[in-house]
Amino acid sequence: MKNPHGHPHTRLVALATLVIVIPLAARTLLGWSNPLGYLSDLALGSLLVLLLYRRPWWLATPVLLAWAALWVASAELVSAVGRLPTSADLSYLFDTQFMENSTDGGLAHAWLPWVMGAGLLVWARSAWRSRTTPDAPLGPKALAIPLTLFGLHWGAQHLAPSDADQWRQYNLPHQLLSVGVGTLQHKALSWAGQTQPITPLPTAGLTQSDLNGQKLPSGRARNLLVITLEGIPGAYVRPNRQALHSRFDENLMPNLSRWAERGMNTPDYVLHTHQTIRGLYAMLCGDYDKLANGTPKGMELLTQHQRNQACLPAQLRQAGFTTHYLQGAGLRFMAKDRIMPHIGFDSVHGLEWFSNENYLQFPWGKDDRAFFEGALDYVGQLRQQDRPWMLTLLTVGTHQPYSAPAQYLERHDTAKQAAVAYLDDAIGAFLDNLERQGVLKDTLVVITSDESHGIDGVRLASSWGFNLTLAPEQAQLPHIKHGTYGHIDLATSLLDYFALPIPAALGGRSLYRDYDTGREMISYTNGMLRYHDGRGVFTECDFQQRCRRYASEGFIAEKAKYLGAGDSRLGAQLGALAGVLDQSLLQTPLNLRYQFGGPSPIQLQARIRDDWADNLIGAQYLEMPGGSRTRVRVKVRALDPQHAAYIQLKAKELEQDVPLGLPDEIRVTAAEPLEMEFGFDNPTQRKAFSFHLLGYGAGEVEVSDFSVITALPGEEEKAEEGSDGHIAQSS
Question: Which whole-number Å values give the CA distances from 699 to 12, 214, 608, in the listed order?
Fold first, then answer.
């Protein structure tokens, strides 16, 4: 039947334009051109046309809105940190406060939502006008189109795997669909008893310390300064690019590169994971953090009262150093207020320490210029004491949304580049001042990054870190430190520099030794598990455990010779190896008792602005095994007798709200504190489960108890007593 409101196929053309033409054009404009990517867009677009063409507008609209949101989220995250969103990231789309902070400086591709919105409006208009007139069916043969396209994509991936970035090969819904199909396939084979046991690769080469190299001149420094730059990849440092013959030629950090030309650089330096708390754990505690999603090991370390003593700050404290940690953001998120003292820092400070004003508004904390000016004062105070000191600094200015002053934004194409340039000027001035004040004469300075926000089109950029050493004996150290190193090596290296014993729990090689042989290395970034065997073979496995093998002398390299696809067992073997490394702290996730409370007073804000920044505790990203039960105890009291506090408690799993059945708000005073206990079952495994304890009012509060106890039925008392359980407490 002909549509009386226009061409009989108007609705079909509008839908096809929205889900096929616009994605193909957007992929080209974003610079993601790749035959597999275009094939993925055609396959998903044709499937959406088939599924939604004759559906009511009220049913198709939410599907198309979600699809458009995934496209925008993919473009923004790739631009910000060089990777596609994971299933855990998607839930951030529904957290309005997180989105407000993350987009405070505007979208990197602001045109894309407008184009998607225009396409949606055109489709909605055609769908509304033809709502009373049934469209002609496409016929059963139309199903062959998406099936053929998906089949071609699958066949190309298996017959000739591509090493292109994931976002160049897939659109996000297609990738998530592939993950789901692969998971179901694995479960089906397991249920049918057709899976074969996998023998994990040995871990000794990854986890044991190795001091068998030839010692370099070291040990003249009295103090240690570790500077951790948020998200900076190794390609931003000019000597690293030159040593690895990188085609990336943007000189975004000329000041840091100027200093790098005076120091010892390690071009083949590997970052093992994403997320700041995981990077800090690896570099300070000589261990790989989780090579997949899961409770960060820094959290799990709170349950240990021996392993934490092997971490670098604790070892230096035992050797007579005073140990200090200073970051430009609040401490409570991800429990850094508890983790940092637990691993040996005497003094731990965040945003509350700074008295100097910011130069620009930045939602996550101090801008980098203000941060380094404050850090210079901190160093000045440390130099007044008689004892040697260790200071670890963490910047936050190059975290999304990449704020920068107007003059920087005018000089650069993107806010991300402007923020990096602003950081470069700030650290350049900081290092210049350290030299002017004589700090470099008796202080070992190590500059690195917690993670890499990636660089579009640069091979392995998400795993490419850097390590720059500025030492009093600099003239005797090599300008380029050859060999493969990573955050796993930093604690061992610094203890070796100061000629201190290396605890057996630490892994890694020393950057201050030369080795004649290669070494194993592993990382998990951008959804890829990557492993180098130390004998010239580099392997990377994607989210479907499809592996590719390359001939490569080191881990980070501009290019590598493709050796072919790995066999069907290789991906499972490397996955099993990562699983063993993930369990280095806790052999079982059961009988966990975490204590996130403490006696420290907490200043309240006049209002709750942000579930993240205003969280009063650090109970984020916890795992809870399936079949267990979790109990929570909370004690909060106001410290000011004249004022009341108003407390809220929220829970999120994968950042989506989980109802706890608690009051929306509880009034707390000094005379009437909040004391409550509640529990909930975990019928299936929970991942990335976070508690958000929020409060507002005048004065301060004390959260003396925030216990999270997870145990199997019948094991609650054991977990409560801590016998054979794990008790997480602050030092």
Answer: 61, 58, 14
